Amino acid sequence: MTALNIKEPFPHDIMPLASHDEHARENITAAMKHHLSEHVYPYDELVYEKQAKQKFIQANGREPKDCGEVHHLMMEQPYTRMWSSMARTLQEMLWDNQGEIVERNKPRLTEAAKKLSAKPKGSLTLDPDCDMPRYVSAVDIHAMPGGYSTTRSETDLATPAVYDRGAYYYTRGMAGRWGQGGGLANVTAFKEFFPDLKPKRILDLGCAIGWTTLPIVDEWPEAEVHGIDVGESFMRYAHARAEALGKTVHYHQMSGEHLKFPDGYFDIVFTGGVFHETSKKAAPAIMKEIHRVLRKGGVSFNYDIPYGGDYNLHAQFMLNWDCYFNAEPFWREWTSWDRSEFMSWGGFDKDAVIDTWADRDHEGNFRFFEKPFDELHTSARGGIGRVQFFGAQK
Ligand SMILES: C[S@@+](CC[C@H](N)C(=O)[O-])C[C@H]1O[C@@H](n2cnc3c(N)ncnc32)[C@H](O)[C@@H]1O
């Protein structure tokens, strides 16, 4: 198996710390995921082209017509079933291990969060009346136990703590050791397109534990930066984490479908990896709200898993595996949406929508491309290595 030396995420005061054995388990699951990615997934296309497709043509007198048909065909292939089962099992092993780590760290984390919130630089606004959307609460997204909605008490930090280390190993370190990768890439790509925009007020919508928020603060330290998410425990953790790292952010428990900010309040609204986890109905509603809270000339800038419509059918099947086996019910719908069309549903000019793509490495660095890809690197199945940016000015 390929050796993969992922460095541990950088610790902060409320990050759960792993014991020697727990860390060894983090490494082995990451290395096995990496092995699947680099040495097993790429051969699935051969199984499709040389065997499965040929049998399908013999039986039906035509090639498969869409990725749904390819999905059913491939799920009958022993090779595909083998890696699919391993991928799901590894995902469960990854989260199980994190659950144990967090359970052991809980008393320390609770105490640290209390201390960190005592004299904050930023703020935390929780809202018991915040509507928790069913598309968040009804699913343990990407097989993460508890999803984003679980909050067991008014000091609970367990699920976001699981996310902090777990999502880092889930991305095989590609999130960056501060979890900064996605947010930093968003900021970097934004500046390519809008170098002269000097924002005063910025929103990170769907910020989870604030991985995407802190690089915004680093880039524009003078700006008023807000982060919102529906998960109460996530907002509590994000607040304590920002305080632990000395960053000023105003976190609010709030839904992107019903933003409690006035019209035209923000210069930029960022999202990172949010839309593929929202429903077909909610995503356009959120985009409409983003448009409303932006001032004239303000910018919506986003990254998410890539549009897959230009990939061949087998690559689309690989891209969409998560929809069926990784508790990502909206993934396939999202990969079929044209981003310009999507932004126009929110009120942006379709012709003004920007599209750019990037690959990320194991240090959380991004390499940008001018043109969209027309093929999926199956080694990055699950959109983990490659993202698409899209944005528009109001
Ligand atoms: C994949 S996470 C991305 C988090 C963060 N931007 C990052 O990249 O680390 C998606 C986040 O969107 C949040 N979310 C989903 N629907 C939402 C809504 N209607 N309003 C606000 N946040 C939402 C989820 O709770 C989750 O924290």
How would you describe this structure to a colleague?
Helix 1 (20-60) runs antiparallel to helix 3 (78-116), helix 3 crosses helix 5 (158-170) and helix 3 (78-116) packs across helix 8 (232-244). The protein has one domain: Vaccinia Virus protein VP39 (Rossmann fold, 3-Layer(aba) Sandwich). Strand 5 (266-272), helix 9 and strand 6 (294-304) form a beta-alpha-beta unit. Strands 1-4-3-2-5-6-9-7-8 form a nine-stranded mixed β-sheet, sandwiched between helices. It is of the alpha/beta class and 394 residues long. The chain has helices spanning 20-60, 67-74, 78-116, 134-137, 158-170, 181-193, 214-219, 232-244, 282-293, 313-319, 321-325, 331-335, 339-345, and strands at residues 123-125, 201-205, 224-229, 250-253, 266-272, 294-304, 354-360, 366-369, 386-393. The chain starts with 19 loop residues before the first helix and ends with a strand.
